[in-house]
Every structure is written in C-alpha cells, then in structure tokens.
Amino acid sequence: MSEKTKNYLGMAIIFSLLIFAYAAVKYASAYANSIEPSTFRSFSVSGDGKVVAVPDIASVTFKVITQGGRDVGVLQKENSGKMNKAIDFIKSNGIDGKDIKTESYNIEPRYQYDSCRSGGTCLPPEIIGYTITNSIAVKIRDFSKISDILSGVVKNGANSVSNVSFTKDDPEKTKNEARAKAIENARAKAKIIAESAGFRVGRLLSVDEGWAAPSYKYGMGGATLEASSSISPAPSIEPGSEEVSVSVNLRYEIK
Question: What kind of architecture, by CATH, is found in domain 57-166+216-241?
Fold first, then answer.
C-alpha cells in the first residue's frame, strides 16, 4: 500500500471517528433532555380562569323523629307512617324517586340514671324508651317548588328540615370551562413574555392545576320544625350564583 493511500485511509478513519463522536454527543444530549427536559432552559407562567356557575339542583334533608316508650314496634310503625306520608307528598310535587334517598335510620335507647345510694351502691341505667330518627335527602330540580315543599313536608309528617344547599348537577362541565380559560390565559402570557425577552416558546413541559369549588348554602341549619296546621309558608329561597375558579401553572421550554 502506497504512502498516499495510507494517508487517505488515516484521514477517513479520523473523519469517521469525529462523526461518531458528534453523534454520540447529540444522542447523550437528547437522552438527557428526555430525562429532565430543558432543566436550565425553561420558564413558567400562571393563568386564571373564572366561570359563573348557576346552580340547578337544591338538596334538602328531611327527618322524622319519633320518641316514645320501650315498644320499638309501635314506634317504628308510627315513624314509618309519617315518613311514607312525607315521601308521598314530595313525589306528588313532581320529585322523581331517583332523587329521594334514605340517608340514615337510627334507633337509640333513652336511659334513666338513678343516683348512687349511700355506701357506694349504684344501680345500672335503665332503658325507659327509644328514639327513632329516619332521615332522607331530596334533590329538587324545579326551584319554584322549594318553598312549597319545605313547608308542606312538615305538614305531612316530617318534623325536621335541614342542610338546604345548592349545587350543579354536572360540576365537572363548569370546571372544564374554567380550566380552558385558565390555560388560554397562561398561553397568552407565555407568548408575550417570549416576545418581550427575545426567545421562542418551545414544548410544554408540565401543567399544574389548582381550583376552588363553589358552595351554595341557605342558612336553615339544623332547625327542627314542629308540624302544625297553622305553620307559616317557608321563606323564599334564592340560589344565587358563584364563581368557579381554576388556576394553572405551565412550564415551557425556551427555544
């Protein structure tokens, strides 16, 4: 092999080694970016989105509380009769059976405690009767019927009305609308920042989200309403509206 051919071959080998080294460096860089993309070449922006949520469901809890002696069967019959009458009234006002749910049914003893006698002798507490509490939760979709149902259900057996609240039947839909607005707001901020700083917005690297759920409340608390033929109509209840807020934080690659 001539000296000239040897030189060409040596140069080809060196050139091949340089290409291989360059490819290895590029591969290592790409692999590093895939593990921790743009660790030192990224920026973050935040965005907020708000949507006014108008409730479409009112939730109310009704209870029939029956207190009496030690014959539980008699108490159960009385309690069930009143609750069935109340439920029949609710259904007669257009409330679907799927929107009526039993939340709890409790039978609790009532005790009489005797004072301890001289000498330290104490008699055990004696059961003198029972209290039955039957609780149902009702969803009211026609808000024009809320006042009539609140007052009428007491006339028809219930003796406690509480936990009146308002919400959306599909809260995720409202949240998605607020989320889309928050992301749009953050993207606009990212574009402005990039243009002002003289770089281009690269890949979206991460998204973090936070949000605040709306709360609709009517302050009746746990007040007990006694059934009476002369009971006044329930006050007018306005559901109002609340804002659903979503905040996002986007991290972008800097190009």
Answer: 2-Layer Sandwich (3.30)
In 3D space, the residue among 158, 167, 180 whose CA is nearest the CA of residue 231 turns out to be 158
With 0-12 / 13-18 / 19 or more C-beta atoms within 10 angstroms meaning exposed / middle / buried, residue 107 is middle
Angle between helices 72-92 and 146-155 (to 10 degrees): 150
**Residues with Cβ within 8 Å of residue 239, at least 6 apart in sequence:** 54, 55, 58, 143, 166, 216
Taking the model in full, what pTM does it have?
Answer: 0.62
**Domain residues of the chain, as ranges?**
1-35, 57-166+216-241
Q: What is the pLDDT of residues 62-118, one digit of tens each?
A: 999 999 999 999 999 999 999 999 999 999 999 999 999 999 999 999 998 876 766
